[in-house]
Amino acid sequence: MAPKSDFYSNTVEATRKEGLAQKLYNATYRQHSGREAITPELGDINSFRDQLAEVRTHAVRNLDRCLAALADNLMARGVQVHWAKDAEEARQIVLHVARVNRVSSIVKSKSMATEEIELNPALQADGLEVTETDLGEYIIQLAGQRPGHIVAPACHLSTQDIADIFREKIGYDGPVEPTALTMAARAVLREKFRRAEMGVSGVNFAVADPGLLAVCTNEGNARYATSRRIHLAVMGMERIVADLAGGALVMKMLAKYSTGQRITQYTNLIAGPCPSDGAQQVHLVILDNGRSRILASRYWRILTCIRCGACVNACPVFRHVGGQSYPGCYSGPVGTILLSQFLGLRKTADLAKACSLCNYCAEACPTKMPLPEYILSLRDEAAREGLARTGEATAMSVWADVLRRPRIYRLGQKMMRWVLRPLSRNGWLSWMPGPPGNWTRVKDLPLPATRSFIRRWRSGEFNHPENADGR
Amino acid sequence: MNATLFVTCLADTFYPEAAVATLRVLRRLGYHVRCPDGQTCCGQPMFNAGHFDQSRTAARHFVDVFRDAQGPIIGPSSSCVAMVRQHYDRLFADDPAYRQAAAELAKRTFEFSEFLVKHVRLDPAAMGARFNDSVTYHYSCHFRPLGIVDEPISLIQRIPGIDYRPLERLTQCCGFGGTFSVNFPHVSEGMVRDKVDCIRRTGANWLIFSDAGCAMNITGYANRTGQPIQAMHLAQLIDQSLGT
């Protein structure tokens, strides 16, 4: 058998962590049920999902034109637009902007794109002070961890966990209580905002025409980050819509699908530098980092994602393994697809296997991405590349061959019972050899029935006056 | 009126009483029920594991066995019905003849409760049904792609005398998922533990299910952990409530 992946070992460890599943459940279920409660307000929710899918698909299908228009419109207002083909280029661009402007301190608002390119370690290695200012991200940064959820980065931590982190890292000595903890973080962050020369943000979505960058938060921190002397935004190149009507629709759907809110508390629409009382310089880094490849693949619709996290919140596997089990900053169903494309199937084949195909993500997704179908495609690719469990393909071939021979199938059924019966107690099996042993390690397996239905049907047990032919 | 029984391999092998009850209920409704005895499995296990070629072998056999079936094809399992309705099209993308035959079958293949509620519009009370015990119900994940929401529960609630206990986290997966349960047993265990906890909190004497896979998973875990759960298929509940 192939050695277990880090992901696999991480999931084993996660399921052994006392209380983790409950914390993840509390966090994801609150957002999940919030979404289920608020989306009916839109009326025909399916038609809104269709519209959003259409808006995003249109942008992704016309990405070259949308991005060119965005860049032109922003540059006309003095925004400096940079194109990064991969993570390294993106990091170098940010470092360069910081160096030429003699920046020493940077504040950040929440951005998955900067997590993806692992920006913080690169900035810190260059002697820059970097502070995350989204409360969840700040907690995670203090703890030295990676975000555990694309929307709620600290959802795997309890109030007690957070108080412990604050005690150790910022000398907190107040009560174990959310408001007090938040005020403590606020006091630290205010000072960081005051000192920082540069703010780095992500982009929730860009509007090609008239050329806007939208940054949505619930904490208002992005307002400070984007109004430092220099504002630098990093956006995945697919996070764009063609026009304002499309942008309005994304805004309408994003908050409902991510946190079950009608709208996020703060929405910044950035058009360019604002010398009077805002950023003197605005930079936009447009990041490819594998997205062009995805666009040309069968998985292209994953680029219509608006990063709301609804699929993550709906995922029962995520609720047990958490985001930190994954080999990158993305997790849950969308993370499974993105990471398989960013890191390659060989390193990520186990991610697609960690899915019970419950289809909840497909129902939750506001852009109707075919997530379960994509997961099946990944499994198909993995099987064809020999990444399935050793012997699985052979076993499946033998099984399939039996299935097209009904007599052999019925004989096999009978023999299976005959072999298993001596191993059973009171109609249950507690031990099985081979891969089925993974089942009996944690659950019993019922013994096959004495006689199968088809056998009974063939014997005439159900013959009926109206069914004289018995078939 | 003709109808054809899609037994499904798990019901055939592990829960034949679910298929017997499906047959009996359909007969009570006046259907002349046939059961092609060459049927085996729809190919779902291989398909879900990503072995599409092997799945296609089984799926072709299914199409061959059922292509001459009379009337609606009714199965006591949402995942097997979803396989035929949702995935055969993709499986036969490069095989127009089978693709067309599969599309024809997909149009008249139904899950048991879906058929009773949407097509027969069964009213258990009008048929003299009665069941004097407490039950809860496990929602199958494959109802989602089939567009089935509360059809099974509405059937249960309309049985006179029944004490229906709603299940917390109703639509959350039980952790079966075919090969998933073998590839990630520890995660599957966590999921089924949640499910069993919710079922036990209802205090119901019976768990009613619609998919044999879920039933094996839930009752298997409950049995292992010394808290056995009595379970029966929805068809068995309807059949029993209608008396002999």
Task: Characterize the structure shown.
The complex is a heterodimer of chains A (471) and B (244). Chain A has helices spanning 6-16, 20-38, 45-61, 63-76, 87-100, 112-116, 119-125, 135-143, 159-170, 178-195, 221-225, 244-259, 291-295, 310-314, 318-321, 332-343, 345-353, 360-364, 371-384, 392-403, 406-420, 436-442, 453-458, and strands spanning 80-84, 105-108, 129-132, 198-201, 205-207, 212-217, 230-236, 240-241, 266-270, 281-287, 424-425, 428-429, 445-446. In chain A, the strands form 3 sheets. Chain A has a 6-stranded parallel β-sheet with strand order 1-10-7-4-2-3, with helices on both faces. A 4-stranded mixed β-sheet of chain A has the order 8-5-6-9. Chain A has a 3-stranded antiparallel β-sheet with strand order 11-12-13, with no helix packed on it. The mean pLDDT of chain A is 95. Chain A is built from 23 helices and 13 strands. Chain A has 2 domains: 6-292, 3-Layer(aba) Sandwich (Rossmann fold), CATH 3.40.50.10420; 392-467, no CATH class. In chain A, strand 5 and strand 6 (212-217) form a beta hairpin. With 471 residues, chain A is α/β, with parallel strands linked by helices. Chain B folds into 2 domains: 2-117, Rossmann fold, CATH 3.40.50; 122-241, Rossmann fold, CATH 3.40.50. Chain B has helices at residues 9-13, 16-28, 44-48, 52-66, 78-91, 96-107, 112-120, 143-146, 151-157, 179-183, 185-202, 212-224, 234-241, and strands spanning 2-5, 32-34, 73-75, 109-111, 134-137, 163-164, 206-209, 231-233. In chain B, helix 2 crosses helix 13. Chain B is globular and about 50 Å long. The two termini of chain B are 22 Å apart. At the A-B interface, helix 1, helix 18, helix 19, helix 20 and helix 21 of A face helix 1, helix 2, strand 2, helix 3 and helix 4 of B.
Strand content of chain A: 5-15%
Specify the biggest β-sheet of chain B.
Answer: 4 strands, parallel
Instruction: Find the CATH topology of the largest domain in chain B.
Output: Rossmann fold
* Major sheet summary line of chain A: 6 strands, parallel
User: Any guess at the CATH architecture of the largest domain in chain B?
Assistant: 3-Layer(aba) Sandwich
